[in-house]
């Protein structure tokens, strides 16, 4: 079977769609086992995620976080790096955003505070990716191992800071004080009200727009700059890129810094946009789910956005399903696991048969 004769739309579009369909078919068996009609469950999830303004707002709010973490993983993948540290980098990025809002929230005007929070959050996330990147580039330490270790270090560091530094006096909650209201990100519902439009209230805020801008910037960087070409060359073949004069250590450092920066932006959506304070475990696994988002999106910004919408649908639709049928909300984790299983570990299960079927049809048409 000649792979060159198989069009790209099969790998990019058809195979992910079939894998998602397989995951949903297995989910249907699970719902049938729970005495829930699969069709009614699917309708409930769809209605809860997309058929109301509030549900759509929550779906896009969750998708915003997945876009940031998915882009972070995708950029590293293009250089042949497996960044498992998005969770810790997002956590430390939240420390940067939180410091800006806590120290300058009632001092600077919002027009200065917002870009400063973006810059500092990105720098803190990049800084947390710097040491694993340096160890990979200079010492040969495997990036998977070091980034996983740094996730635990970030968790321990944030727990210490919240208990001993940021926790207000007289409270036992492991969280900082609430940010000054002037530092909160405007919600799209509030912006719509200012423009005379009625948009249902939801956590969706302007960081969603920044996430889309980041997707465009990542696309331009990877496919339309010399640095992006070097990054993809190293990912395709480290030895060939070295023969062409491309510095492997430099590419690793730049790639991981950009990846960490994108993960650090995650805190804008959650902390500055919704929680308005630093809380323990505010990342809630979004960094790890970003790996699945990047894999499903084929490491392309457009694919990452679409995969983020899917996982946002699972989050919000799963919450609606839990409320409607009274089942454990961890059913969302099961649904995510099935999607990851079929789109990741079993990604190529159907590929040979699909490609063989296409090639046989093409041969008959040619004859």
Topology:
Layout: H1 8-33, H2 38-50, H3 53-78, H4 86-104, H5 110-139, H6 143-166, H7 188-194, H8 207-224, H9 226-236, H10 238-243, H11 248-264, H12 266-275, H13 286-296, H14 301-325, H15 331-345, H16 351-366
Q: How would you describe this protein?
A:
With 367 residues, the protein is mainly alpha-helical. It is built from 16 helices and no strands. It is globular and about 75 Å long. The chain starts with 7 loop residues before the first helix and ends with a helix. 43% of the residues are buried.
Globally, the shape reads globular
Main sheet makeup: none
What's the tally of helices? Answer: 16
Percent strand equals under 5%
Order of helices and strands: HHHHHHHHHHHHHHHH
How much helical structure, as a percent, in the residues? over 70%
How many DSSP-defined strands?
Answer: 0
Rounded to an integer, what's the Rg over CA atoms? Answer: 22 Å
Quick structural summary:
With 367 residues, this protein is mainly α.
Properties at a glance:
367 residues, mainly alpha, globular
């Amino acid at each position: 079977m000649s792979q060159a004769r198989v069009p790209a739309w099969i790998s990019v579009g058809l195979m992910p769609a079939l894998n998602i369909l397989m995951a949903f078919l297995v989910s249907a068996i699970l719902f049938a086992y729970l005495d829930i009609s699969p069709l009614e469950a699917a309708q409930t999830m769809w209605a809860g995620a997309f058929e109301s303004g509030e549900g759509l707002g929550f779906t896009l709010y969750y998708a915003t976080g997945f876009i940031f973490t998915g882009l972070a993983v995708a950029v590293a993948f293009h250089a042949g790096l497996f960044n498992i540290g998005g969770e810790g980098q997002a956590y430390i990025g939240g420390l940067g955003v939180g410091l800006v809002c806590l120290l300058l929230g009632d001092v600077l005007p919002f027009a200065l505070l917002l870009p400063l929070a973006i810059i500092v959050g990105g720098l803190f996330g990049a800084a947390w990716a710097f040491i694993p990147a340096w160890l990979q580039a200079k010492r040969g330490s495997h990036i998977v191992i070091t980034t996983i270790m740094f996730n635990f270090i970030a968790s321990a560091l944030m727990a210490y800071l919240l208990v001993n530094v940021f926790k207000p006096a007289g409270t036992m909650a492991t969280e900082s004080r609430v940010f000054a209201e002037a530092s909160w990100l405007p919600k799209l519902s509030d912006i719509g009200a200012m423009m005379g439009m009625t948009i249902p209230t939801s956590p969706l805020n302007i960081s969603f727009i920044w996430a889309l801008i980041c997707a465009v910037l990542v696309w331009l960087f990877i496919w339309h700059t010399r640095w992006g070409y070097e990054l993809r060359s190293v990912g395709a073949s480290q030895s060939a890129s070295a023969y062409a004069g491309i510095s492997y250590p430099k590419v690793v450092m730049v790639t991981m810094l950009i990846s960490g920066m994108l993960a650090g932006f995650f805190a804008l959506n959650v902390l500055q946009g919704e929680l308005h304070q630093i809380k323990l475990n505010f990342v809630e696994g979004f960094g790890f789910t970003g790996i699945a988002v990047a894999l499903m999106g084929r490491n392309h910004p457009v694919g990452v956005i679409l995969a983020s919408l899917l996982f946002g649908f699972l989050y919000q639709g799963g919450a609606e399903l839990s409320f409607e049928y009274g089942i454990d909300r961890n059913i969302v984790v099961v649904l995510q696991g099935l999607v990851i299983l079929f789109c990741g570990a079993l990604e190529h299960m159907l590929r040979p048969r699909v490609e063989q079927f296409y090639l046989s049809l093409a041969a008959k048409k040619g004859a």
